[in-house]
Amino acid sequence: MVTAAADKPRIVTDAEWEARQQLAACYRVFDMLGWSEMIYNHITLKVPGEDHAFLINPFGLHFSEVKASNLVKIDIDGNKLDDSPYPVNRAGFVQHAVFHRHLPDVHCIMHTHTTAGMAVSSLEGGLQPINFYACNFAGQIAYHDFEGVTVRDEEGARLVANLGDKRMLLLRNHGIVAMGRTLPEAFIKHWSLQRACEIQLATLSMGKPLTVAPEVVAVHQRDLHMAQVPGGAGAADFAAMVRLVDRVDTSWRE
């Protein structure tokens, strides 16, 4: 849990303020890890107790400038639900809103244009089972063909259809989309897929990779839970990264 270190606005519930702080911390963690893309890309989080409302970054600010107080609260139709002076990037709203609308189990969505993520999404065959982290995702990643910048509502139906029952998505020629029931769960999934992509890039640059056999992948996925820290998927990992961010700057809490 991200604990409060600044007074929350009176109009914001305790639950929303905690969600705001957790999401703001995540933006700072992403920046620390080198996953910022100028003022673009998005991480969204549902507002607790408000199924049709979610928080998104203010368009025009760098990830390193995001704070709990300047996150924008919008509904799934794109209407602002607070008095934020900042606009919302339509490319972010269209993609995230369609998933928040149709996937009740998805509370957090992360989309990035990391070099490794974009490179693997642009490779024929996509992610390959050739390293530890890639084996986590074998058979669990959906793909969606590139249709240009995601600003048209009608693409939403195809995004949902191509995702199906999966909760990890590689947008071909575009990048990573990670989804989770909680923000820490989405974070650890994004982190692991990013690592898988980085290692695939390094491996393919050296020659022919060793492919892990399907029966070994099945055992690996079966046993992964035994290597997790108690407390929920990604909880300890995300908390550790927030502590690292706090050593440099705590302004995200404001």
Automatic annotation (TrEMBL):
PANTHER family: ADDUCIN, PROTEIN HU-LI TAI SHAO. It comes from the Bacteria. It comes from Sphingomonas plantiphila. This is Class II aldolase/adducin family protein. NCBIfam families: PRK07044.1. Residues 21-201 form the Class II aldolase/adducin N-terminal domain. Belongs to the aldolase class II family. Pfam families: Aldolase_II.
